[in-house]
Design a protein that fits this description.
Length: about 425
Amino acid sequence: MATTEQGSESNTIFGKQVLLLALICIAAALLYNVWSDDGFSFFSSARPVQLTYVPADFQPNLDEERTLRILAQPEKYRREFDDMVYNFNMALLYHVANRMALPDSLRRRLEPEYKKHHEYLSRLYFNDFVSLKDTTATMYETWYNDNTNQAVQVFNEVAGKYTCFFVTQVMATLINAEGGKLMAKGKNVETPCGIAIQEGLHPMMSRLQKRAEIIDFSASRGLLKERVRKGIAELATYELRSRMGVDKTLQYKLLGFSISETDIRVEAISVIKAGFKLDQYFDVTFSPSKGVVYVKLPPPTILSHEVYPRVDKLDVGFLAGVNEKNMNEPFNELRREFRRDAIENEKVLDKAKMRADSVMQLLLGPVVKSINKKYTLQVRFENVPETMTEDEWRRRGEDGAMPPADIRKTPRDKEKVLAN
């Protein structure tokens, strides 16, 4: 009986010793994982990635003249714009890979990984760029020596918004650093995002901006050598007249203190005409089965913009005068604000579309009725989403409930609705 009790007590002591030893091992492993950068974790499969940064020069391999020409007219060079974004982003990725000294096996995966993102990225780049840059104001920007230069500034803003995203996504996929640590050593250690922005994007935009200033100067001087005679086919359907002013104060400082000021106040009247360039697109088709004549117009645009500036105040400081740049900047600033207000607040393009239907009914309606009194005329717009108003819905004799106002109908969708 004593022997049995002694054996049971011995087994209990041995079990406690094994448990204590296991706890000591686990504690030692956890401490090692916390205090050592090269440690590991029992609870995560992600391991730290050790990188050695090396010096590298950014090689964008972009034709500056061609790039600036594309940025100045992005809608004309749509495909070239996509190619430019692709080449520039790939150059950024290769530069980051060179600085991080990635092996050739990973560099070969850069392009396939980026291709997974390029389609939607190029669409985002283009849409944001066109929305920020008023592409209908090319002539005016050229006159104020600011067309190409402004295009570079807008592209820098757009690229800065997406560069960090795609560089981080691609690099995280290649080096499997997601959830783990990214340890780096070497000269000028920086995050992949920081390398792409500071060493790639900003230097390239600075080079383009210097070249843009030369191009803008030459283009402005050669804008109108004598006269330009050009045949046009335009339909202006909406006009907006407005008035704005801008105050500007120029300070001249010495040792950080303002010692002289020049006040400039400029007011201007603006006349904007919106409508359609019929030489770009105009089509008339007839559906005998429906008894409908379709008139298709191009998207609405700003056809002309006249600005009549007036200097209402010019109080020149006693230490300095006013140069041509000081005067031109308020003029161009007013012109841009007029256009922005007309498009965003006054919705002149939408109102031009609404007015276009009435004009077409006035011009072509009698012709259609002369063919057959039962025939109707309908206006469509090329590649422009359409919202049908309640008045338009009733005017076309449609039955049933009015569709929700927030539903945007394309011409093809509208045709399906009318067919039903």
